[in-house]
């Protein structure tokens, strides 16, 4: 584990649960990505973790930002980001939010349907717009393909319409799904995008940007491909499909930049087999699905759990949160093995919890306070 | 709809989304339950909605309270509840939380395993304890049976042990699952409980209380049986299985008391078919699974949605929240029909949202503020 975080966790006086994030590690990941894919502009997906310490660090590195709401646009501005470096990437926006962002100087907006395009034309005249395509999400542990994106045919119609509405038809985007573990996921999507670039060029519209979305995976329980495998596949596909006319590339990493930078410190509230012969050892932590670990829904994201007992006998465990809610079970089918001695009062660490955790936390479910956060 | 709520919703100046709760309706439900099952003590399940206005009204009516955490115990005390009228009903408690509740005067604690019983014995000497049994949750739309409760055999061992540990082995509890629509759900559980009462009496332990948990359903899309059907089935089963030796009865309604008292006012952010032939009309609201509607997970709870267009053509709709999260879809499989004219900017009402909504809301996911709440 990260030595800065290890030292921080040694302070046993801090009440659990809490999240500690090493902001230097966020910088390390940012630089790594910048080095591997220098031709791309990095727009950090603020929703992954909107902590001011992270935003400020990324501003200092020259990052741009992908905002999901007017409130996230505001946060970026507060952190010192120039409005020109903010993309309003949610395809679902209130007219008032578009207007607020536009008045603050934001000029780049996503959409995936005519209704949204018309709202942007009304509220953000002359803005740059990009249309989100529906693409395959196979290989992603947290898919995004049902709710967002449109067909190639419709996207073509919409980009032509964008011009008619006085907007700047700037580019196309897609998202291969979050925690995407297949390095080939981007290729087909890039091919599809290139096809539409050509098609629209014939119709008199010269697009200039491809937004590859996010999706780069991080290490939870399982090893994942290194980032250079993704970036080289992407660079090759861009050259293959766009030839010597490669457009401006935007990427929107969230999980990849901040996930591995964070660790949650949690206390075991109770362990018991509850008198059920052949049942698992139930381990109830003081954080659960409603305290931030929302991505354990359907046991999708499998966090690595470190206990004070690295040696010794292990038993099959079911792992649940501290609330009275029957749905507050993180892992029951996933084969977790935990130490037989693990007991009430022990502290455990949940690794790679820097992204998509703190902001999901419920305000007060079962009376529990929101997750405490420390940025070091 | 409730006329008080209707009048409140007419104020179009309030920003959405918000929840409005008619506290008089909570009182109405409390009195109804009290009348139908006068032999039972009502312990309101605070987690359903911990708003001070609700707690204070229930205190004024003489209600007792079921708390899930030390923080919920504190809330009840702040609302004026006597400590003797509070049950610490979560079977998963930190030792420190037990100690805090005990010091504040709470004397009634739930458990379902030896490890928890020992914590209670250490932190709350002489307290009354009750053991939660595992029972069938068939018929419940929000089941609770995997995470909580123990076997009859183990419960017997534990109640004997409770006495050895200097605790008062007071009773037994179970939970037939939340939003339980079968009026027969309680019978088998009561029979099981009575069996253990007899068994323990032979072993020299006279239990004096049965906690029937919650579970009474409310009306969402579908009609549910009236409360008197549940209470009369319960009363009959208690007489049948306990004969002339009926113990003190505790019930823990949450949803039943506050669910129908609440309505959410939400704005349609976007509607679109996204160019997908034969696809549903996608309706994106400004509240979703992470803004409070957590019980739509797996499309379990199906809220009734009222639009400004009661007449006219309807189309199949998929209904989603406003975030960039692909999991933020409320209904895709459930056959919702919504008006063809429904569009961005329209206000809709989601009924029966007084329980298990506001407290589930995320602190800041995608930058959105927590749900505003009004108690009238």
TrEMBL record, chains A, B:
Its cofactor is pyridoxal 5'-phosphate. InterPro entries: Ala_racemase/Decarboxylase_C, De-COase2_CS, De-COase2_N, De-COase2_pyr-phos_BS, Orn/DAP/Arg_de-COase, Orn_de-COase, PLP-binding_barrel. The active site is at residue 324. Keywords: Lyase, Pyridoxal phosphate. GO terms for molecular function: ornithine decarboxylase activity. PROSITE patterns: ODR_DC_2_1, ODR_DC_2_2. This is ornithine decarboxylase. It catalyses: L-ornithine + H(+) = putrescine + CO2. Residues 24-258 form the Orn/DAP/Arg decarboxylase 2 N-terminal domain. CDD domains: PLPDE_III_ODC. The modification N6-(pyridoxal phosphate)lysine is found at residue 47. GO terms for biological process: putrescine biosynthetic process from arginine, via ornithine. Pfam families: Orn_Arg_deC_N. One of its GO terms (cellular component) is cytoplasm. It comes from Entomobacter blattae.
């Amino acid at each position: 584990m990260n030595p800065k975080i290890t030292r921080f966790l040694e302070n046993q006086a801090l009440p659990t649960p809490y999240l500690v994030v090493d902001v230097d590690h966020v910088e390390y990941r940012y630089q790594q990505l910048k080095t591997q894919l220098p031709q791309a502009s990095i727009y950090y997906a603020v929703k992954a973790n909107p902590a001011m310490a992270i935003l400020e660090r990324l501003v200092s590195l020259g990052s741009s930002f992908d905002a999901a709401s007017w409130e996230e646009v505001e946060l970026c501005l507060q952190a010192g980001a120039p409005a020109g470096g903010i993309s309003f990437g949610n395809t679902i926006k209130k007219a008032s939010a578009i207007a607020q962002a536009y008045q603050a100087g934001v000029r780049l907006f996503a959409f995936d349907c005519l209704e949204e395009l018309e709202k942007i034309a009304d509220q953000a005249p002359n803005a740059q717009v990009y249309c989100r395509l529906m693409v395959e999400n196979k290989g992603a542990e947290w898919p995004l393909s049902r709710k967002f994106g449109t067909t190639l045919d419709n996207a073509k119609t919409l980009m032509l319409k964008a011009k008619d509405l006085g907007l700047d038809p700037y580019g196309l985007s897609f998202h291969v799904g979050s925690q995407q573990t297949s390095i080939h996921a981007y290729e087909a999507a890039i091919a599809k995008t290139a096809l539409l670039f050509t098609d629209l060029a014939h119709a008199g519209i010269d697009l200039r940007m491809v937004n590859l979305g996010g999706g780069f995976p991080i290490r939870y329980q399982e090893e994942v491909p290194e980032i250079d495998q993704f970036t080289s596949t992407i660079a090759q596909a861009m050259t293959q499909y766009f030839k010597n006319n490669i457009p401006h590339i935007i990427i929107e990493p969230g999980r990849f930049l901040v996930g591995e930078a964070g660790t949650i410190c949690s206390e075991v509230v109770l362990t018991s087999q509850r008198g059920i012969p052949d049942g698992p050892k139930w381990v109830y932590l003081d954080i659960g699905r409603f305290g931030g670990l929302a991505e354990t829904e359907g046991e999708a994201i499998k966090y690595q759990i470190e206990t004070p007992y690295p040696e010794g006998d292990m038993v099959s465990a079911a792992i649940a949160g501290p609330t009275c809610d029957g749905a507050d079970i993180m892992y029951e089918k996933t084969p977790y093995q935990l130490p037989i001695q693990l007991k009430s009062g022990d502290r455990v660490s949940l690794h790679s919890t820097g992204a998509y955790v703190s902001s999901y936390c419920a305000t007060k479910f079962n009376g529990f306070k929101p997750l405490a956060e420390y940025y070091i």
